[in-house]
Amino acid sequence: MDGKQALDFGASSDFPSLLRRQGLFAPAAPIGPMNTRAEIVPTESTTILAFKFSDGVLVAGDRRATSGNTVVYDRADKVLEIDRRSIMAIAGVPATAWEMARVLEHSFQFFRRTQLQEMSVDGKVRALSKLLRDNFGFALQGVGIVVPIFATYDVKASPSARLYFYDAMGAQFEATGSGSPAVRGILYYENTWGKKPLQKISEDEAVVVALRALDTASEADTATGGIDRHAKIFPIMKIVATDGIRTLPAEKIAELFQKSVA
Amino acid sequence: MIEEPYRWVEAIATRRDYIEMQLATGSPVVALGYNEGILLLTVGQQKLFEIYDRIALGAIGHPGDIERLRMAAIELASTEGFTRSAADVSLRRLAYYSLSPVMKNAFEQIYGAPFLARLLFVEIGTSPADDLFLEVEYDGAINLRSSDGGNRPFAVLASTKKSAEQMAEFLSKRFQSGKDLPATLDLALDAWTVGQLKTDEAMPGDDEIRRQRSERLGRGTISAAVLERNTNRAVRYRAVEASDLAPLIAK
């Protein structure tokens, strides 16, 4: 903490550039030649999903972390809280994704503290875009691809629930659902031909849809943990709504699982 | 002219007078411990700020200088919190290691501009014993109030030394630990009023303080912020909105 150094610089609202000035954060990765020999991490090797329902956005992720065909950890948390009303769910290389989440969390807080106002939802969506764009060089080299989902709640706008998915270059798309192909299929089916569109279903119904989707995804994909019936490991589920983020207790998920999925 | 040592001392003394004069009209800031955390209160323009998860700042002085120091504090705390962890961000270190030397230096370089600002930092700990009230003067001097030094959990920032003494004296008689937020707000407003009184007269009675308080509050907006101890969020700072403030304040 060098006081002189910080005082010499003018006011800034951008946290990554503050870190870069002090050499604490790597510059954007150069776009070098593509490493064709490296195994490009398939982004379906995790299943995260998010969709809007009647009360907000539900974000769910399985718990399995893999390296090649080895299961490294079966209680990973891929659904990360960034601030009071924003969630980032990660698929891809964990180290890069966690670092991005940390930068993002600090960026939003830094902006609020220095500028004395919350960063706008569009600003937040863009901030993640920039991080992904800076990381694209690494993604090409096969060491650090991240494909996140970003869910947030804009109290000032209507519709309030906002959901974005990104590609590895940082382009953002507003979405109603994402995840692996199997999950995408299920969400499309539920939304179009289900009893009610996803936007109209209750919280309990939303949890059941998410559980069934993750269970289906794990049926064919060895890298998705799904639901571990034996060890009672359930997916992480969080809900973003007007009053902030809520993590659904495992007991509640277990109960709905017993009732409607098992 | 200042090659001669006594000239330098003279220049510093003149500079001190000049700064004191500049600060003399500032609106006081009061920080009081209450049953769920620490309250910061002032009346007038915005000068209560969030520095980091557990650190808040109140200030008197020139807005431009307050802004530079506030920015420096936020940048220092944020980089520390990012590169290490939020637990490594410490108010003691921030003040002693980073801010104080820079402010002292600016004050003593008599061809450069000093900081026209007096700062009160408050850091909330896991228990009241860990709370810290720390004042940094325009010349870099630090006045630390921690409970292990036998201090009770309150601190003031006033436009003059005399005012500060008067407020501290008032609070040492009235302050009681463990009160709720409305009672603490009430006392903070009384203490703020005491900080606005003329310092060459004896302390007026309660009725007179009340009368002056309602007269002065009619002309300014109250701003208040709290550092909350028992919340499961990492960020303990919360600005108290005007709409929440009104019902809490006794008429």
Structural write-up:
Chain A is of the alpha+beta class and 262 residues long. Chain A has a single domain, classed as Glutamine Phosphoribosylpyrophosphate, subunit 1, domain 1, CATH 3.60.20.10. Chain A contains 8 helices and 11 strands. The longest helix of chain A is centred in the middle third of the chain and has 22 residues, at 94-115. Chain B has one domain (27-248): Aminohydrolase, N-terminal nucleophile (Ntn) domain (Glutamine Phosphoribosylpyrophosphate, subunit 1, domain 1), CATH 3.60.20.10. Helix content of chain B is 43%, strand content 23%. In chain B, strand 6 and strand 7 form a beta hairpin. In chain B, helix 4 (161-174) runs antiparallel to helix 5.
CATH fold-level label of chain A: Glutamine Phosphoribosylpyrophosphate, subunit 1, domain 1
Report mean pLDDT of chain B, rounded to a whole number. 92
- What would the principal axes of the Cα set say about the shape of chain A? globular
Fourth-level CATH superfamily of chain B: Aminohydrolase, N-terminal nucleophile (Ntn) domain
Largest sheet features of chain A: 5 strands, antiparallel
Q: Would you tell me which CATH topology of chain B applies?
A: Glutamine Phosphoribosylpyrophosphate, subunit 1, domain 1
> How large is the share of residues in beta strands of chain A?
15-25%
Secondary structure elements and their pairing?
The complex is a heterodimer of chains A (262) and B (251).
Chain A: H1 3-8, H2 15-21, E1 48-53, E2 56-61, E3 65-67, E4 70-73, E5 79-83, E6 86-89, H3 94-115, H4 121-134, H5 136-140, E7 149-153, E8 161-166, E9 172-174, H6 181-193, H7 203-220, E10 236-241, E11 244-247, H8 250-260
Antiparallel strand pairs in A: 1-2, 2-10, 3-4, 5-6, 6-7, 7-8, 8-9, 10-11
Helix pairs in contact in A: 3-4, 6-7, 7-8
Chain B: H1 5-23, E1 29-34, E2 37-43, E3 48-52, E4 55-61, H2 63-83, H3 91-108, E5 117-123, E6 132-136, E7 142-146, E8 154-157, H4 161-174, H5 181-196, H6 206-217, E9 222-228, E10 237-240, H7 242-248
Antiparallel strand pairs in B: 1-2, 1-8, 2-9, 3-4, 4-5, 5-6, 6-7, 9-10
Helix pairs in contact in B: 4-5, 5-6
